[in-house]
Amino acid sequence: MFAPILTSGAHTEAGDPHDAGPHVVIVPYLAELKNGQSIREWTELYESIVHPTDQANSWRQSRTELRLNRAPAVREEGISPLTTYQFTNVAHKNIVWSVWTNIPSNDSLAPVYDRMIRSFRFGRKAPINLNEAYGSNFTPIDLEQAAEINVRLQQAAPLGSGNDEQPAFGPGTMSLNTTWQAPVKKSSNGGNQFTATCGSRAHDDVGTYASLAVGIITPINKPVFNAKYGNVTFAGWDPWGYGNLIRIQAQGGKEAYYAHLNAIYSSIRVGLLLSTGNGIGLTGNSGTSTPHLHFHVQWGTSPEALTGMYGFTPTNYPLEPYESRFGGTAVNCAKVGF
Question: Can you count the helices (H) and strands (E) in the chain?
């Protein structure tokens, strides 16, 4: 639904939400909210894919989570290169609705937008997913897969550039975004991030799945948390050196490894869908290790750089290929904890 709010002397061209006149646009997104995914996670991922340039040049003044008549929502206000804006993303089951306006909060018309938001509600017959809304042949956008494609295209060398050099940490590698969060909390370390090492001989095959792994140095029995909502693909004893291991695959295919655990929570089982931040186990030194949490993310057999993950502060990460492959000595490379 497109609903311009006209004031005396105002002029608007129907269909363009960035026109000078005050506008409110209400529309469902064509990408669904996954089961177990928070509206904040979904919004950040959508913004990073659909509006990367606007996001980089925008000034976000505020983003808050709220509930509107029991529906989870996120509200943001900011200034983009095109206009001032407010939007509220409201979730109804798997559909996310956007209520967007170019009316700033200090405008005389702002109370109109506020009343619309407070009165927003869903009836009993409101569709709960996009197939119900548009038919069984409709295919919703998969944001995780779109993110993979988007970033890999950005990393590819432009045609005709003559630059065939690949990133130092291998072809196909990309960084995580802030919808991933560190698997440990600062509150478990006196309010400080834990030191992480990389470059150990066990991870010295540059370009393979674990070459960007970190060892998060923790005492035994510190809680470990799921870094990204997804399904458990393995939970148990790994005979090849990982000891007690949990693998969790996020939507889009990236899989996180949590190894050398002292304990796996009894609720963790293959197929279980976990939200970001759910507790999964306790740190330890099972398998071939000294006390630390081994953590890495891979997509197929491609290693994924942890840079960008919320709660990850790189200091010397990733290591240069020579240092990682031939040194085989673990060195401090990051601080981890949110």
Answer: 6, 19
Q: How many alpha carbons lie under 13 Å from residue 161 in its C-beta half-sphere?
A: 8
Question: Quick one: tokens of 317?
Answer: 């990460």
Instruction: State which CATH number among 3.40.1000, 1.10.10, 3.40.50, 1.10.1670 fits the domain covering 2-143.
Output: 3.40.1000
Look up residue 100 and give its two tokens: 């967007």
pLDDT digits (tens, 9 = 90+) for 21-56: 788 999 999 999 987 788 988 888 787 776 654 444
Through-space distance between the first and last CA atoms of the chain, rounded to whole angstroms = 40
pTM over 0.70? The answer is: no
Quick check: 191 and 179 in contact, CB under 8 A?
no
List, as one string, the DSSP characters of 36-92.
T--HHHHHHHHHHHH-HHHHHH-EEEEEEEEEETTEEEEEEEEE-SS-EEEEEEEEE
Q: Which residue has the tokens 């890999």?
A: 152
Looking up tokens 């398998």, which residue turns up?
A: 287
Assess whether the previous peptide bond of 219 is cis (omega < 30° from 0). Answer: no
Angle between helices 39-50 and 143-155 (to 10 degrees): 30
User: Are 262 and 243 spatial neighbours (Cβ–Cβ below 8 Å)?
Assistant: no
* Cα 267 to Cα 13: distance, rounded to the nearest angstrom: 55
Q: Would you identify the CATH topology of the domain 186-336?
A: Glucose Permease (Domain IIA) (2.70.70)
CB 103 within 8 A of CB 109: yes
